[in-house]
Task: inverse folding
């Protein structure tokens, strides 16, 4: 039996990865900042902040055979802790992202140029945006004295806890679609190609890498090779949840997603084509493209779950911005829920302040 620790593994991939690991005979431990209970013998949740060094030090005293790291770090933060992680496990799997790659219309392989390697804008390079930070983390692992790491790069991953359309998440486009409200989308991006992979398939690929010595010091694009234009993806969502898009210019789009940090959206999934090659991961896992879920079937599977749809919370602020541009109204019940949530949060903060003053 081996013990596998998932740092921050409660998201879109983690919900499928934990069951797959258990099915393969591993004992699974997942860190979570919120309290969670498990009714499965081989699955345990550990409450705490995995970015807290004291919590992490005590946690790793338990000696896990493999650590799968879903955490998002700043570059300096990762540089400070990578040796500690690598030295306290047999196999460390770092979850990077296909966002690290630069613009490419050709199938992207593990050796394709990354944005960090080709960017010559000093202002951009001075930032630690998501795409650049992930690439720097990869470099830190390669330059380390350890040889027990693997890098995996998912593409856009959809799951029972996550859906994406462009830069909008389920809390915007799914909620509005289900209430017959339109969303805007940049006209010039509708023909850009994207790759969206089902979380269950990503999980199956990662599981077959765990403690696999041939995967040490290697990087893998864990994804499907199926790709579609955003226009085609919009058609899928239209059939499944009634998505209605209003084409607009990119400036209007930026008013919704926010452009406060102009480099935050470096290598955005909208501006760059994402056509992937997955031959390396398929060879390493003895899988084939036919084993993977096609996009329409996968979205149909996840969006047919009424429990999933009911659990989606509205991003009220983004939806209000959207309603102003599309000249529509935000559903009244979400207006009420949003304000009740704000009121509740303020009451809790007030009570906490009083409690701290007294004690």
Result:
């Amino acid at each position: 039996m081996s013990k596998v620790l998932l740092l921050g593994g409660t998201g879109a991939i983690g919900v499928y990865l934990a069951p797959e690991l258990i099915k393969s005979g591993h004992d699974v431990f997942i860190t979570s900042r919120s309290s969670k209970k498990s009714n499965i013998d081989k699955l345990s949740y550990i409450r705490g902040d995995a970015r807290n060094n004291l919590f992490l030090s005590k946690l790793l005293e338990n000696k896990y055979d493999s650590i799968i790291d879903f955490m998002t770090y700043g570059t300096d933060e990762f540089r400070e802790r990578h040796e500690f992680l690598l030295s306290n496990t047999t196999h460390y799997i770092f979850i990077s992202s296909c966002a690290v790659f630069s613009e490419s219309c050709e199938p992207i392989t593990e050796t394709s140029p990354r944005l960090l390697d080709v960017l010559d804008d000093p202002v951009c390079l001075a930032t630690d945006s998501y795409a650049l930070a992930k690439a720097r983390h990869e470099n830190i692992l390669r330059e380390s004295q350890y040889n027990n790491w693997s890098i995996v790069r998912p593409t856009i991953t959809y799951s029972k806890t996550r859906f994406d359309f462009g830069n909008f998440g389920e809390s915007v486009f799914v909620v509005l679609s289900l209430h017959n409200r339109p969303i805007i989308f940049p006209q010039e991006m509708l023909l850009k190609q994207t790759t969206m992979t089902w979380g269950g398939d990503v999980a199956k690929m990662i599981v077959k890498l765990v403690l696999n010595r041939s995967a040490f010091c290697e990087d893998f694009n864990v994804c499907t090779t199926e790709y579609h234009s955003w226009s085609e993806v919009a058609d899928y969502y239209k059939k499944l949840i009634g998505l209605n898009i209003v084409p607009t210019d990119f400036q209007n789009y930026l008013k919704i997603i926010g452009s406060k940090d102009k480099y935050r959206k470096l290598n955005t999934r909208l501006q760059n084509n994402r056509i992937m090659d997955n031959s390396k991961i398929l060879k390493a896992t003895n899988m084939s493209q036919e084993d993977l879920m096609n996009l329409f079937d996968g979205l149909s599977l996840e969006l047919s779950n009424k429990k999933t749809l009911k659990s989606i919370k509205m991003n009220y602020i983004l939806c209000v911005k959207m309603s102003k541009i599309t000249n529509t109204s935000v559903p009244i019940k979400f207006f009420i829920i949003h304000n009740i949530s704000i009121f509740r949060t303020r009451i809790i903060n007030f009570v906490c302040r009083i409690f701290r003053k007294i004690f």
Remarks:
- The first strand starts at residue 2 and ends at 7.
